[in-house]
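seq:
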Amino acid sequence: MITLEKVRQRAESDAKRHGYYLNPDPKFLESLLEGLEQNEGRYGYPLCPCRLASEKFEFDRDIICPCDYRDPDVEEYGYCYCALYVRKDVFEGKTPIQPIPERRPLEKQVRAYAVSTETLAEKPSEMGAMIAEKPSKDQRKMWYCKQCGYICFREEPPFICPICRAKREMFGEIRIQADIRR
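struct:
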């Protein structure tokens, strides 16, 4: 059984090994670690708490924390996409944490979403039942924030991006081809 303390120790150890620090905001750090703990309990592996999971290990491999995109993000921006791992200048407050673009290829994001919705259809859960009550698939669309890469699935784009606070005009529609290969 994974505990929050084990998740914290693993993240601290990994940060130290690579010369990084954990996010200096204790409350925000706690929420990220709780997300990792919940994802590991739910999926059996520590998925990034800020990305959509497919629930299939082979598709999620690149977003297992620390994700494949952490090092390039920390090198370029000073922190990873979810800001769990940060450089020294960010840890010391010299560089502010701002939203950064998503490095995960759109094809992988779309693939994860497609697999995730198929899983919900195969195994209806409480969440699956809630989704089933919403408008049918043909009324909902996949939207992405052109500024930070946030993705959502709904009838209309949000008025404000929950990640970077971009306005609705910054959202674009993602069209999924019907022949997604498995």
